[in-house]
Amino acid sequence: MKSGVVAIIGRPNTGKSTLINAILGQKVSITSPKPQTTRFSIQAIYTEERGEVIFIDTPGIFGKTYDPLSKKINQHAEQIVEQHIDVLVYMIDHTRKKDFEENKTLGIARKFTGPKILVINKIDIDHPSYIVQYKFMEEEFDTVIRISALKKKNIPLLLDALFAELPETSEHFDIPEQPHPAFNFTSKTFIAELIREKAFLKLRKEVPYKIITIVDFIEERESGSLHIKGRIITNDERYKSMIIGKNGAMIKAISTATRKELEVATNKHVYIELQVENDPHWMDYL
Ligand SMILES: Nc1nc2c(ncn2[C@@H]2O[C@H](COP(=O)(O)OP(=O)(O)OP(=O)(O)O)[C@@H](O)[C@H]2O)c(=O)[nH]1
Ligand SMILES: [Mg+2]
């Protein structure tokens, strides 16, 4: 049997979380079309007949970090290569031009001396493609695999390549200490992430980057329904009123979208009460 830790790194928005969800066959990490959706590393365990793998999803590495939030997110991602990992998966998005942000991410990957797999994602898109700009990277990697995380194309090929590199073990995996609670549909952290995903999808411009989400209360009643209380915290009155929206329309939309997904996932009636707060010290929660 084989087992090990696999970390996925790459620029923001390349599809890292989409890949993790595709491999796991369930949602463990939130995704959105906006960069830096993932804010801290998320671990998920994948088991099959060949062995056990802990996948670590990381936040996309930002080229320029002007604000404290981006700085903190980048630190989370950069620390990954310093901890024990067996295989590094480096994901690129060939539909976007290579720029200094890629070089920064590549610099972090170079610090890792173990086996590295280059994954070219979004092969379901032909145009635009800047694949030639990434060609030079191929020789730095042990294996190159082209996939579509969204369309679940070539995922088995990637798993074959991963298992080929993973170390052989006789025992079951000693699961390392989790930095965050295990994700499932009744975990406070997971539901807070789900609320943040819906906020990311619905709020415009910089607003999604000015929020954090917290779930304070989850109760499963005897009737089988799930009651949740959460907060969206921002750092400005102006953002607060945008999150609430006209007559509360925006917060209602975020809450409804979260509720719908949770109802499908848990097959329970879900009630969500969301409050919006303005707290200048919001970053302390991260
Ligand atoms: N067309 C296409 N879109 C994809 C593919 N994989 C991911 N996407 C889309 O790309 C966007 C970003 O995906 P995420 O999985 O959130 O990307 P990420 O790398 O985790 O991003 P950060 O967490 O911000 O670093 C989403 O809109 C996905 O639906 C793919 O194979 N093809
Ligand atoms: Mg992500």
What does this structure look like?
The protein is of the alpha/beta class and 286 residues long. The protein folds into two domains: 2-165, Rossmann fold (3-Layer(aba) Sandwich); 188-285, 2-Layer Sandwich (GMP Synthetase, Chain A, domain 3), CATH 3.30.300.20. The chain is built from eight helices and nine strands. A hairpin with a 5-residue loop joins β7 and β8 (226-234). The protein binds guanosine-5'-triphosphate and magnesium ion.
CATH architecture of the largest domain: 3-Layer(aba) Sandwich
Strand ordering within the main sheet: 2-3-1-4-5-6
- Overall spatial form: globular
CATH superfamily of the largest domain: P-loop containing nucleotide triphosphate hydrolases
How many domain regions?
A: 2
| Alpha-beta classification | alpha/beta
The tally of helices reads 8
**Fraction of residues in helix:** 25-40%
Bound small molecules, deduplicated: guanosine-5'-triphosphate, magnesium ion
CATH topology of the largest domain: Rossmann fold
Order of helices and strands: EHEEHEHEHEHHEEHHE
Distance between the first and last residues' Cα: 37 Å
**Average pLDDT figure:** 89
- Total strand count, please? 9
Strand content: 15-25%
User: Which CATH class of the largest domain applies here?
Assistant: Alpha Beta
Largest sheet data = 6 strands, mixed
Q: Which consecutive residue ranges, at least 5 long each, have pLDDT under 50? A: 177-182
Q: How much is the radius of gyration in Å?
A: 20 Å
Q: Main traits of this protein?
A:
single chain, 31% helix, globular, binds magnesium ion, binds guanosine-5'-triphosphate, Rossmann fold, 286 residues, six-stranded mixed beta sheet, GMP Synthetase, Chain A, domain 3, three-stranded mixed beta sheet, alpha/beta
